Amino acid sequence: MSIESATRNLGAVRNFVRQHAEASGFPAAAVQQMMLAVDEACSNVIRHAYSGDEQGRVEVEISIGPETFRVIIRDHGQAFKPSAYEPPNLYHSVKRRKGGGFGVHIMRRLMDEVEYATRGGVNEVRLTKHRTPQSGDGL
Amino acid sequence: MSNFGVAFRERPVTAGPAPVRVLDLSGELDAHTAPDFEAAIEDCLNNQQHYIVVNGAGLDYISSAGLGVFMAFIEQVREQGGDIKIAALQPRVFNVFDLLGFPVLFDILKTEDEAVSKFTN
Predict the structure, then answer these.
(1) For B71-95, what is the mean pLDDT?
(2) Closest-CA residue in chain A for B34?
(3) Which helix (H) or strand (E) holds A101?
(4) Measured between CB atoms, does B28 come within 8 Å of chain A?
(5) For the purposes of burial, counting CB atoms within 10 Å of the CB of A51, is it exposed (0-12), middle (13-18) or buried (19 or more)?
(6) Cβ–Cβ of B63/A46 closer than 8 Å?
(7) Spatial contact of A124 and A116, defined as CB atoms under 8 Å apart
(8) For strand B20-29 and strand B5-11, is the pairing parallel, antiparallel, or unpaired?
(9) Bridge-based pairing state of the strands B108-109 and B83-87
């Protein structure tokens, strides 16, 4: 699916992920994890890659294999630099009265693989969950 | 389409410092709806209501944007002698709070009554 870079579209993205993950037979907890991880990825694109500009496009592609469920999120905004990422600290966020910065942490905790790439001005985040008996642990 | 909602209630507290403001959350709290929740907390603060219980029984979903509202305001509320206590979360929503370590810094109770009674202790 392809959406405008606006937060009003996050619900539709979550439904898109849920429909395909449920149809693929993933347990409810794993479906919730994937919905949240993709929400966080798209929210970051809207807020950081496009800096709130709702004219940008966000493409969300789902690729289902025998052992994996993969969601690929593409945008044409400012690239995320994983090397500059610092893990968040809840205590410090509370003391600084600052609410953001936990999206990447959530993605990494909930998905088996989180990969970033930028090619030809297109940024790509790949979120992959393996189909295992433990799929869904942690949330 | 997100269907988030916030409703306000007040509960008198015996021997408590002031009535407790209860915020009933419903629907999905994400980056789109977090400003509505933020406005509800600001409304409490503007009315000098610093004893706040967030009842999450009707909350079906939360992302980090929703959790961010708690992070951004809790210090200000506690500076005024109050607190934001969280109650009645559905398990899948509680798990998101737990994932970020909220139980260490926030009072998260099973029921609204337990949360309200915390203000009398």
Answers:
(1) 96
(2) A7
(3) none
(4) yes
(5) exposed
(6) no
(7) yes
(8) antiparallel
(9) parallel
For the record, the structure tokens of B116 come out as 């309200």
Chain-chain contact of B63 with A94 (C-beta, under 8 angstroms): no
Q: Count CB neighbours of A21 within 10 A.
A: 25
**Minimal Cβ distance to B63: which of A43, A93, A109:** A43
Are B65 and B30 in contact, with CB atoms under 8 Å apart? Answer: yes
A127: enclosing H helix or E strand: strand A122-130
Mutation to test the A interface, candidates B29, B36, B45, B71, most A Cβ within 10 Å: B71
Chain A and chain B share a number of CB contacts under 8 A equal to 86
Chain B positions in Cβ-Cβ contact with residue A103 (cut-off 8 Å): 64
Distance between CA atoms of B61 and A32, rounded to whole angstroms?
Answer: 9
ipTM field: 0.92
Chain A residues with CB under 8 Å of B108 CB are none
Closest to A12 in 3D by CA, of A52, A30, A39: A39
User: What residue type is assigned to position B3 of the chain?
Assistant: N
pLDDT tens digits, one per residue of B23-70:
999 999 999 999 999 999 999 999 999 999 999 999 999 999 999 999
Neighbours of B47 (CB within 10 A): 10
Q: Chain B interface, mutation test: which of A4, A32, A33, A36, most B Cβ atoms within 10 Å?
A: A36
Confidence of residue B78 (pLDDT cuts 50, 70, 90): very high
Single-letter residue type at A21:
A
Reading the block at residue B38, the tokens are 């933020």
